[in-house]
Design brief:
Nucleotidyltransferase, domain 5; about 325 residues; OB fold (Dihydrolipoamide Acetyltransferase, E2P); five-stranded antiparallel beta sheet
Length: about 325
Amino acid sequence: MRCLPCNKEDTAMDTALLVWSNIIPTCGVPKIIISDRDSKFTTEFLTNLYDILGTKLDFSIAYHPQTDGLAERMIQTMEDILRRFCAYGMEYKDHEGKTPALVKKGWNPLFPVDHLKKDLLTIHPTAKDLHEMWKRACDTAAKCIAEAQEFNKQRWDKSHMKPDFKEGDQVLVSKINFNNLKGPKKMRDSFVGPFTIIELIGKNAVEVKLTEGFSRKHPVFPVSLVKPYFQQEGNKFPSRKKNPTPPERVEVEDSPGPVKKIIKARKIRRNGKDQRQYLVRFKNQTADKDKWLAEDAIIDGNLHLCRFRASRRTVKSHQ
């Protein structure tokens, strides 16, 4: 495990330099990088860079930390450790049964407090003993991780049923991770929808067709945040609301900010249809934060598109 110091203001370029300077020289070019959908990893710049290096980016599903549970748990541990100024390598882990330092090096390093209790330092083991200690530590850690995963699976299976969704089904989506919605949080409905499933993403996620008010949200949700929608039958319960939840205005969560200008356009084919996208530069952002967006996804799109088309006409007239 490697933890690298960085700043909250770091750009995609800074992130790429961290990987280039600290990971690639010692570990080589990774085949796969598992990441959340942070804007530093989803930028066109970083995606193209990893394509050149032959590295595949596997993005986790939104609101689903179980995709990379060990890393998420490690992050929580690191945050807790930083608050207490403790050494990570000396903390015993339930999954491994040993400290990370013991698994990696075969021994626990001494700290100044240890010298207050002992007159002599621990004798360093021989090469053979060290190799055997490493092997036992790694075998024990692998066994503990497997047992912990099996225990977590059994505990989850006891209280959860396997979802039975198919394409075309109508579902409701939990609002637990929908921020910046209108109205008091306690007064909102727990679920919003219905939305139609357009694709099953493996066994644990679905892609839904979001309505206008939610079109800027990522359309893939884990099945744990989705439940079937049942059409109300006639006037059996006349006091119930019969209309589905109307779409709400959702503020863009992952937008880098207001649009500065449109740089260029392209045409792509998606779902059998031609779509036009525009490369957008945002105010107070560097080029690595540029994004390809559809026309209806650009804030004040009409204004910026008029300026972009006018600039293209000007360039053509001078050629």
